[in-house]
Design a protein that fits this description.
By secondary structure, the protein is of the alpha+beta class. It is built from two helices and four strands. Strands 1-2-3-4 form a four-stranded antiparallel beta sheet, with no helix packed on it. A hairpin with a 5-residue loop joins strand 2 and strand 3. The protein is globular. Bound molecules: zinc ion (3 copies).
Length: 105
Protein backbone atom coordinates (compact mmCIF):
# COMPACT_ATOMS: atom_id res chain seq x y z
CA UNK A 1 0.00 0.00 0.00
CA UNK A 2 1.23 3.50 -0.84
CA UNK A 3 2.00 5.60 2.22
CA UNK A 4 -0.43 8.45 2.81
CA UNK A 5 0.80 11.96 2.14
CA UNK A 6 1.56 13.98 5.22
CA UNK A 7 -1.39 16.36 4.91
CA UNK A 8 -3.94 13.59 4.59
CA UNK A 9 -2.37 11.65 7.45
CA UNK A 10 -2.34 14.74 9.67
CA UNK A 11 -6.01 15.50 8.97
CA UNK A 12 -7.03 11.93 9.73
CA UNK A 13 -4.90 11.90 12.86
CA UNK A 14 -6.43 15.14 14.17
CA UNK A 15 -9.94 14.04 13.35
CA UNK A 16 -9.79 10.59 14.92
CA UNK A 17 -7.80 11.65 17.95
CA UNK A 18 -10.83 13.71 18.94
CA UNK A 19 -13.51 11.32 17.77
CA UNK A 20 -12.47 7.69 17.63
CA UNK A 21 -15.85 6.36 16.56
CA UNK A 22 -15.61 5.50 12.86
CA UNK A 23 -11.96 4.50 12.69
CA UNK A 24 -13.03 1.03 11.62
CA UNK A 25 -14.83 2.46 8.57
CA UNK A 26 -11.88 4.51 7.34
CA UNK A 27 -9.57 2.41 5.13
CA UNK A 28 -6.84 5.05 5.46
CA UNK A 29 -6.69 4.50 9.22
CA UNK A 30 -5.01 1.15 8.57
CA UNK A 31 -1.91 3.21 7.85
CA UNK A 32 -2.07 6.00 10.43
CA UNK A 33 -0.75 5.56 13.96
CA UNK A 34 -3.13 7.20 16.43
CA UNK A 35 -0.38 7.60 19.00
CA UNK A 36 2.37 9.39 17.07
CA UNK A 37 0.76 10.15 13.69
CA UNK A 38 3.22 8.03 11.75
CA UNK A 39 2.17 6.43 8.45
CA UNK A 40 4.73 3.64 8.80
CA UNK A 41 2.38 0.87 9.79
CA UNK A 42 3.34 -2.73 9.16
CA UNK A 43 1.80 -6.12 9.98
CA UNK A 44 2.67 -7.38 13.44
CA UNK A 45 4.99 -10.35 13.00
CA UNK A 46 3.64 -12.04 16.13
CA UNK A 47 -0.09 -11.51 15.66
CA UNK A 48 -1.99 -11.85 12.38
CA UNK A 49 -4.83 -9.72 13.74
CA UNK A 50 -2.63 -6.76 14.56
CA UNK A 51 -0.75 -3.96 12.86
CA UNK A 52 2.17 -2.20 14.47
CA UNK A 53 3.64 1.30 14.14
CA UNK A 54 7.24 1.12 13.01
CA UNK A 55 8.07 4.40 14.72
CA UNK A 56 6.54 4.13 18.22
CA UNK A 57 5.91 0.33 18.20
CA UNK A 58 2.26 0.80 19.20
CA UNK A 59 0.32 -2.26 18.08
CA UNK A 60 -3.41 -2.30 17.44
CA UNK A 61 -6.03 -4.74 16.27
CA UNK A 62 -7.13 -4.29 12.67
CA UNK A 63 -8.55 -7.17 10.64
CA UNK A 64 -11.56 -8.27 8.67
CA UNK A 65 -14.33 -9.83 10.76
CA UNK A 66 -14.39 -13.56 10.00
CA UNK A 67 -18.18 -13.59 10.29
CA UNK A 68 -19.29 -10.61 8.21
CA UNK A 69 -16.11 -9.29 6.56
CA UNK A 70 -16.37 -5.80 8.01
CA UNK A 71 -13.22 -4.16 9.34
CA UNK A 72 -12.60 -4.48 13.06
CA UNK A 73 -10.26 -1.89 14.62
CA UNK A 74 -9.22 -2.06 18.26
CA UNK A 75 -8.96 1.74 18.46
CA UNK A 76 -12.63 2.17 17.59
CA UNK A 77 -14.95 2.32 20.63
CA UNK A 78 -17.49 0.27 18.68
CA UNK A 79 -15.05 -2.67 18.66
CA UNK A 80 -14.51 -3.41 22.37
CA UNK A 81 -12.24 -6.20 23.51
CA UNK A 82 -13.62 -9.65 24.27
CA UNK A 83 -12.47 -10.95 27.67
CA UNK A 84 -12.80 -14.56 26.47
CA UNK A 85 -10.73 -14.73 23.29
CA UNK A 86 -8.80 -11.46 23.49
CA UNK A 87 -9.90 -10.35 20.04
CA UNK A 88 -12.23 -7.45 19.33
CA UNK A 89 -15.98 -7.66 19.02
CA UNK A 90 -17.29 -6.66 15.59
CA UNK A 91 -20.37 -4.47 15.25
CA UNK A 92 -22.14 -7.66 14.06
CA UNK A 93 -21.43 -9.22 17.47
CA UNK A 94 -18.82 -11.74 16.33
CA UNK A 95 -15.36 -12.15 17.88
CA UNK A 96 -12.81 -14.94 18.05
CA UNK A 97 -15.17 -17.03 20.22
CA UNK A 98 -17.90 -17.21 17.61
CA UNK A 99 -15.50 -17.55 14.68
CA UNK A 100 -13.56 -20.61 15.77
CA UNK A 101 -15.33 -23.82 14.87
CA UNK A 102 -12.30 -26.07 15.02
CA UNK A 103 -11.95 -27.80 18.39
CA UNK A 104 -8.81 -29.26 19.84
CA UNK A 105 -10.27 -32.42 21.36
ZN1 LIG B 1 3.26 5.43 16.21
ZN1 LIG C 1 -18.69 -8.88 11.86
ZN1 LIG D 1 -14.45 -13.66 22.08
Amino acid sequence: MEPLDRDTAKKLFDRYRKQRDGIRNSPEMASVCLICGSVHIIPDAGNAHKLVCRDCRFAFFRYACPACGKTVDGRDPQNPGCPECGLRICTCGACGCTATNHRQD
